[in-house]
Write a structure and sequence with these properties.
Blueprint: E1 2-5, H1 14-17, E2 22-25, E3 51-56, H2 57-61, E4 79-82, E5 92-95, E6 106-107, E7 109-113, E8 116-117, E9 124-125, E10 135-142, E11 155-161, E12 168-177, E13 181-192, E14 201-212, E15 221-235, E16 238-252, H3 259-264, H4 271-275, E17 279-294, E18 299-315, H5 320-323, E19 332-352, E20 355-375, E21 378-379, E22 382-383, E23 389-409, E24 414-431, E25 443-461, E26 464-475, H6 479-483, E27 499-512, E28 515-527, E29 530-536, E30 539-544, E31 547-561, E32 565-578, E33 599-607, E34 612-622, E35 625-626, E36 634-635, E37 638-651, E38 654-663, E39 671-674, E40 684-686, E41 691-702
Parallel strand pairs: 7-11
Antiparallel strand pairs: 1-2, 3-10, 4-5, 6-9, 7-8, 10-11, 12-13, 12-41, 13-14, 14-15, 15-16, 16-17, 17-18, 18-19, 19-20, 20-23, 21-22, 23-24, 24-25, 25-26, 26-27, 27-28, 28-31, 29-30, 31-32, 32-33, 33-34, 34-37, 35-36, 37-38, 38-41, 39-40
Length: about 700
């Protein structure tokens, strides 16, 4: 029997979960061969016993603006990713319905960029620091095994950036689109040596600037982004990788619209939005250090260290009269966050009772200190300016998670992956703003959960397998969800409980020629699901909804045919419902969970040769989405079409890629995303009509 180790851990992501991917092969040989591929080489969609999709960086950049992950990531089944047209609130991303309630940023999923969490210890994340121009590949993990990453329920998104290699290459790219949008970027990558000798160095450095006037009124934004990755081979058995990232975002916040406003003029904003000049500024800088060492033929050590800071200032459109109420925290939010962490992992490969087995043990520690201040957004008659302080607190959150994961290869056909994680999340708040009308709201909470997961896989043949898996997920309230109570009550929302989800999944994968077809059937039952209670003037409070159930089917196809043709298709059926009353006096038992589409479909066809003319198109369908717990308000279903075409020249050491694209080809008027349970009825965030863009990328390789 011949067994191959497909790859070593790409930093923190799936190899921590599947420390070794075992592939049954070559029945003619009884020799066991274990070999490791370079870190960052990704994972096998076919052999991984879980619902996982891998999207290459080239696909993310192909004829695309390279600004948002939503551009070319919609082909992943089970992933609902929507551009709010609001850079003050980031993308709206959910996996199997988890994360749909988030009014800003990421929630319910874990995201990593080169092994550094883009999700804070409390479970809140963001995508603004991801440089699409430097992506090597993106891995999207859905289902039970995401539980082994701790504080999340829906899934894991791992972004790996490019590792520099020879020859040295310089690249410049520009893009211009509708609504005064443009992006300019530069990138340099290269290496000394082939990475196998002591002293070999590789590097990838990039910088970009994006500016837009915005589709809607009061939605302009600017973003400056820098990213760097430097790797050094220390000796024959160890490497060190230095990571650096910095982003600055300055964006206006257009807020949502009522149904009547959307139908009358989808580009408008509510009057108080401009009156108070709603906006947000974000500055984030982080650095990481990843050390890998092969301790012996059977043992590997990985240590990931990182630290960063994030400064956020947000001006909300909250009326002055509301802010003057006793205990109200104001209309300006000022956040200063410092975060750091370490993930240490040991992997051992051996045999037990003659069966190949791999055991990985690790300890993950993350901590975040937040200084949260609130101010009135007026001074006298001047609106949209910082006024008197109304909130001042220091919040500390940390999590300490030991974990153990194993992979067993019983026979050529059968294998078992199993693991457990003990997740401990601690929240502590110290209130420094105490007055006669605003009492001391200090408090603390600690949450514990055992998070087991297991998957049994059967290889029907070398190109077809089936698996069954089960696992438990754990999701604590974020700092933002704890920050506000409903019904204008003061203080922290300490009554919120963590949500616990149990998932069972049955899946199969089949390689067909140069393509892969996947199918996954799942059910997730959640206790104490955290959902939006109400959203008023940009401030959202949350509650526990009791029990919910998600049942779904995910189908995916990625097929290459001919020499230069590619077809991608995905369909997701997701029935997500309350199983208890989440509406207070009105019964919501059996209602759909808001923010989640029941059906999503994608189909894309591309003709993409290595050089010369290329073209492609895609169709996206989204069924209607409930916007409130009562299901009284829904965003209508829609179908949109996009087309692109371009020409690529390869001339000696030069590469030139010129393209144009049209999105929403038939000028469909639709709602791109919803704000769940918005108290003023401004649920809708409109998507742009037909829009155009052109781009040019020029690169030179020093050969």
């Amino acid at each position: 029997m011949k067994i191959a180790l497909l790859r070593q851990a790409p930093l923190l992501m799936l190899p921590a979960l599947f420390p070794l991917q075992l592939m049954a092969a070559d029945n003619a040989s009884n020799t066991m061969v274990v070999s490791a591929a370079p870190a960052g080489s990704g994972l096998s969609e076919l052999d991984t016993p879980a619902a996982v999709s891998v999207v290459s960086g080239d696909d993310m950049r192909h004829a695309a603006p390279r600004v948002n992950l939503s551009e070319n990531l919609t082909s992943v089944p089970g992933l609902q990713i929507q551009n709010r047209q609001n850079y003050a609130q980031d993308l709206q991303i959910s996996v199997r319905g988890f994360g749909s309630r988030s009014t800003f940023g990421l929630r319910g999923i874990r995201m990593y960029v080169d092994g550094i969490p883009a999700t804070m210890p409390d479970g809140q994340g963001q995508t603004s620091n991801i440089d699409i121009g430097s992506i090597d590949h993106i891995e999207v993990l859905r289902g039970p095994f995401s539980a082994l990453y701790g504080n999340s329920s829906g899934g894991v998104i791992n972004v790996e950036t490019q590792t520099g290699q020879q020859p040295t290459t310089l690249e410049a790219s520009t893009w211009f689109g509708s609504y005064g949008s443009w992006r300019n970027s530069v990138k340099a990558s290269g290496a000394t040596g082939d990475g196998t000798q002591a002293g070999d160095v590789n590097y990838t450095v990039s910088a970009s600037r994006f500016t837009t006037h915005g589709y809607r009124d009061h939605s302009s934004a600017q973003k400056n982004l820098g990213n760097a990755k430097l790797g050094v081979r220390i000796d024959d058995v160890s490497t060190l990788t230095l990571l650096f990232n910095s982003v600055h975002v300055d964006a206006q916040d257009p807020g949502g619209l009522t149904e009547a406003q959307w139908k009358d003029n989808p580009r408008q904003v509510a009057s108080n939005v401009t009156l108070y000049n709603a906006r947000k500024t974000v500055d984030q800088t982080q650095a990481g250090l990843h050390y890998q060492r092969q301790m012996s033929e059977n043992d590997d050590l990985s240590v990931m260290l990182y630290a960063g800071e994030r400064e956020t200032t947000q001006y909300q459109s909250i009326p002055r009269a509301t802010q003057l109420q006793a205990g109200y925290p104001g209309g300006v939010i000022s956040l200063s966050r410092h975060y750091q962490g370490i993930d240490t992992r040991w992997t051992h490969r051996d045999t037990l009772f003659t069966l190949p087995v791999t055991v990985t043990g690790g300890l993950d520690y993350e901590t975040m200190t937040e200084k949260r201040k609130g101010y009135q957004n007026f001074v006298g008659n001047d609106l949209g300016v910082q006024g008197d302080m109304r909130r001042n607190e220091r919040n500390l959150m940390w999590n300490l998670d030991p974990y153990l994961q194993t992979a067993w290869q019983f026979t050529d056909k059968w294998s078992l992956d199993a693991g457990v994680r003990l997740s401990t999340v601690n929240f502590d708040s110290n209130d420094y703003y105490v007055t006669a009308t605003d009492p001391d709201d200090s408090g603390n909470r600690r949450y514990h959960r055992w998070l087991p997961a297991a998957s049994l896989k059967y290889a029907i043949d070398n190109s077809w397998n089936a698996y069954v898996s089960a696992g438990r997920g754990f999701e604590t309230p974020t700092l933002n969800e704890l920050s506000y109570r409903s019904a204008a009550q003061t203080g922290l929302n300490m009554d919120l409980k963590p949500a616990t989800s149990d998932t069972v999944e049955l899946g199969t994968k089949k390689r067909i020629g140069n393509g892969l077809i996947t199918a996954a059937l799942f059910q997730t039952d959640t206790q104490n699901e955290i959902v939006s209670d109400s959203s008023y003037e940009g401030r959202t409070s949350y509650k526990n909804a009791g029990e919910t159930r998600r049942r779904g089917l995910e189908l995916g196809l990625d097929q290459q045919f001919g020499e230069n043709w590619q077809f991608k298709a995905a369909w997701t059926l997701l029935d997500a419902r309350y199983r208890s009353n989440a509406c207070g006096t009105d019964s919501c038992d059996g209602n759909r969970i808001p923010g989640i589409a029941r059906n999503m479909a994608y189909a894309g066809l591309a003709y993409a040769p290595e050089q010369g003319w290329y073209a492609g198109g895609d169709v996206r369908y989204m069924s209607d989405i409930a916007a409130d717990d009562e299901n009284d308000v829904k965003a209508p279903a829609y179908t949109v079409v996009g087309v692109n075409s371009g020409y690529k020249w390869l001339v000696q050491n030069w590469t030139l890629d010129l393209f144009g694209r049209v999105d929403n080809l038939f000028d469909r008027n639709y709602v791109g995303s919803v704000i769940v349970n918005e108290s003023n009825g401004r649920y809708y965030e409109p998507a742009p009509g037909r829009n155009y863009s052109v781009g040019l990328t020029v690169s030179y390789a020093f050969q």
